[in-house]
Amino acid sequence: MCAHVFGVLKSLFGKPFDGGKRMEPGGAAQQQHPPPTEQQQPFPPPHPALTRLSEVQREAAALGPQVSTFSGLQEDRDYRRLERELTRLLLDVDRVDTEGRAELQGARKRAAQEVEGLLRYLEENATHPSRLAIEQLSREARRLVDERVVAPQRAGGVSEIDDELVDDLQRLVLRLTQVKTEGRVPLRKARYRALTRLCAVQDVLEGRTRRQTLSLPLPGDTHRAVHQINQVMAQVSAARSQLVALLMGLSGRDSCAHLSRLLTEMQVELDALDVSGNAAIRNYRKQVVEEINGLLKHLDLEGEGDDTRRYDLAQNDSIREIEAVRAHVSHLREGVLRHCLGGDLSFRPKAELQSLLTHLDQVDTARNPCIREARRRAVVEVQAIITFLDLREALASRRPGPDEHPSHRAVWRVLASLSDLQAQALGFDGKRADKSYMVLEELLTKQLLALDAVDPQGDPANKTARKQAVKFAQNILNYLDMKTDEWEY
After folding, report:
1. Is the pTM of this model over 0.70?
2. From CA 168, how far away is CA 170, in angstroms rounded?
């Protein structure tokens, strides 16, 4: 019986039962542990060549954002710095010893390609034809502003600020907006920075306030205030020229911060004047303060363009709003052309088109020249349909009399031809290289020549009619040119 019990216990515990001796305190028996397994060997350290190549790749990745947003030229200091850093990394890659091992050679080749790609991208953007075109237009603007505004002011004279100067600057703005960027961030940034500065100069020149002097005599206690305001106004005039020089890069010594301090001191000086007793002087001071505030708002352009949302407008709310209007205009244009080609003049959505013009006028451009240009082009599209409808209606209601002047009749014949050509221009959806574009352009040019051959015979009404017809033909040509210039935001 005992032998049987010991056998059962042995089968359960694997060893003969010893009466619990292994469980006694101080006993030699302890809990059994499995034999220790062999510990995992650590990975061997990476090859020194791979370590150095990884370091080079990390440095190149850190320079990548700077390269991808650099918008300057090859002679710029930042360009030379980036080029120097990337060239150093490329030399470091070349110095890595691969010991003839294929995996090390492949790693070195990949690292070299990454650095060379950044160098190539940097050079391509700095020497891109569009970047050079932006710089050329900026130089034209600087020369114009220097000759007409900055140089005369420095010489102690009077700046030649007139409508002709403002119009010349507007033409440069229009040419800048038409520079193609191919979607490249550096080119978009360069175009945007040039546009914002040129538009700021326009705003400063257009919003200038001439030095004003109140009529005298005034009460004696207000004469000093008037004199001080006049002095501040003279300082504001000089500050305006300094601001224009800063915006156009024509000032090597001044800075935006320095000019901001000067303008703020002028405001403090004006605020300290006691003009409570005279409403006219109070309004004069208010006008000068508003002039100073108008200059101060343009002094924040130092970092303008660093935010990609300012020049990458694909997701801009105003652009989306303009595009929605353009889509609606396109739908209306198709309807107008479809009805007119069928001889049906009943479809005249002029009220709807006018409401779209009102909508576009309310779009917030946020002082962004690209959004402003997008809105202008949308307005031109709407106006083209309205003028087309007006001319069609005028032609349909025209009832010429037997005594109509031959010159007047000739102008109307040309207008009828222009109406048909405008319908083709409205429906044109090709490129300038297309044969249909060249044919349409040639036909419009022939109509201009036909108008030039009309002899008004000294009749003022005939002269006016011919002049309006010429302007109408030129507008069609400009519209066709706008539709095919491949403009981008």
Report:
1. no
2. 5
